[in-house]
Specification:
Elements (H helix, E strand, L loop, with lengths): L1 E3 L1 H5 E4 L3 E3 L5 H4 L7 E4 L8 H16 L14 E3 L7 E6 L13 H5 L11 H9 L3 E9 L10 H11 L3 E5 L7 H9 L2 E6 L5 H8 L4 H11 L6 E8 L7 H14 L3 E6 L1 H6 L6 H14 L6 E4 L13 H18 L11
Parallel strand pairs: 2-6, 6-7, 7-8, 8-9, 9-10, 10-11, 11-12
Antiparallel strand pairs: 1-5, 2-3, 3-4
The structure holds iron/sulfur cluster (2 copies).
Length: 348
């Protein structure tokens, strides 16, 4: 029995330039430091299994000795229990591809943090190596994120191999501008859930947020995905101050939710706004969120989820000093990239 984490023992996460254990490191997300790195300057190399697990043990042995790697300090994933030290992988995040066919005003892949990368490296050869070596659990958890997964070249083969032929539990974020046949099939199989941030109920507001005129296409694809049997399709409404912060927009959004019969609705607030006000949310947004919640809960047929901000204004676990570091970190990056042309390659 000791403190450790499943991802340090059994997780892999593909970043644009590194192979890391996970994308949850507070050291990276809050302090602008590093996640637990397994392979620096990674470009899809097949890492021989003994080498891979020896790199993973560099971190897991620190936990085993009773200490915590600096990359993992304060992480909510740390638990005390009997850990299975068998060498296998059961949690993979693919997020090395940050290109997108939309241009959301709140996207952290472009304006704030970094330029989008049209990263070309393949992950399938390494994944197939792990699978053929019997290291990948058949029911692994597979998270597909980064930019827009449906325009990523390996999207269909990943879904086919692990979602349709295999039994991976897939969690995919998509903007639904491009329809993926294999995503539909994986949803229909029952082991895949998708989340679409629609954030609006009208074409005009969609254009303001996504900066592309694709509302009709997205609605059509939401209908297609949610026509799958026993689907798990979540529509998200990210409350963006000054853009979609009114009940009229939200009511139209709920109309779409009800017509499409999606399974889940999630209400959240935009992260950039939170940072700009040091998490001191204007009470107007608490009231509005409460009204939205009450309105959404009048109807049956879907699960309504909301972010803690409705009840709890200050993000748990982030002390003031760390918050200041975060703000400084983002501002610095923003100033570095703001003058560059980041919004030139729209295609769908
Ligand atoms: S403890 Fe947290 S940061 Fe460390 S590997 Fe686990 S999830 Fe990642
Ligand atoms: S859909 Fe929007 S938030 Fe998601 S990656 Fe594309 S631009 Fe960013």
């Amino acid at each position: 029995m000791y403190k450790s984490c499943n991802l340090i023992l059994h997780g892999l996460c593909f970043y644009p330039n590194e192979l890391v254990s996970c994308c949850y490191s507070p050291n990276e997300q809050v302090n602008g430091g590093l996640a637990p790195i397994l392979y620096d300057k990674y470009k899809g190399e097949i890492i021989e299994k003994n080498e891979l697990f020896s790199r993973m043990r560099k971190y897991s042995d620190i936990f085993k000795s009773g200490d915590t790697p600096p990359e993992c300090l304060n992480c909510f994933q740390i638990k005390e229990k009997e850990w299975d030290e068998t060498e296998y992988i059961d949690f993979i995040t693919i997020t090395h591809y940050t290109c997108c066919n939309a241009d959301c005003i709140y996207c952290s892949n472009n304006l704030e943090v970094e330029e989008r990368t049209n990263e070309k490296y393949d992950v399938m050869p390494f994944l197939m190596y792990l699978k053929n070596e019997g290291i990948l659990k058949n029911d692994l958890e597979l998270h597909l994120g980064g930019g827009e997964i449906t325009i990523y070249k390996e999207c269909e083969s990943i879904l086919e191999e692990f979602g349709i032929k295999g039994n991976a539990h897939i969690h995919a974020a998509t903007n639904a501008i491009k329809y993926s046949e294999n995503l539909y099939k994986a949803i229909e199989k029952g082991n895949t859930n998708i989340i679409i941030s629609l954030d609006c109920g009208t074409r005009e507001t969609f254009k303001k947020i996504k900066r592309i005129d694709a509302f009709d296409k997205v609605i059509e694809n939401i209908y297609k995905y949610s026509s799958a049997k026993e689907h798990k399709v979540t529509l998200k409404y990210i409350l963006i101050p000054g853009v979609n912060d009114n009940m009229n927009e939200f009511k139209k959004f709920i109309e779409i939710v009800r017509k499409a019969k999606v399974s889940t609705v999630r209400l959240d607030i935009e992260g950039r706004y939170l940072r700009s006000v040091n998490n001191n949310i204007n009470p107007y947004y608490f009231d509005l969120a409460e009204k939205m919640k009450n309105y959404a809960q009048k109807f049956d047929g879907y699960v309504f989820q909301y972010h803690e901000f409705i009840k709890q204004p200050i993000t748990k676990g982030i002390c003031k000093k760390n918050l200041k570091n975060t703000i400084d970190f983002y501002k610095l990056k923003y100033l570095k990239t703001a003058i560059k042309e980041l919004y030139t390659s729209h295609k769908y």
